[in-house]
Amino acid sequence: MRRLAVLFVLTVAGLAPALAEDFPGIRKLMSPEEYEAAGLDKLSEAERKALDGWLLRYTAGEAETLRNTSDEVRDAKQEARIKARVRAPFEGWSGNTLFHLDNGQVWQQRLDGRFAYNGSERDVVLDKNFFGFWRLTHVATGRRVGVTRIR
Question: Is the pLDDT of residue 56 over 80?
Answer without folding.
Answer: yes
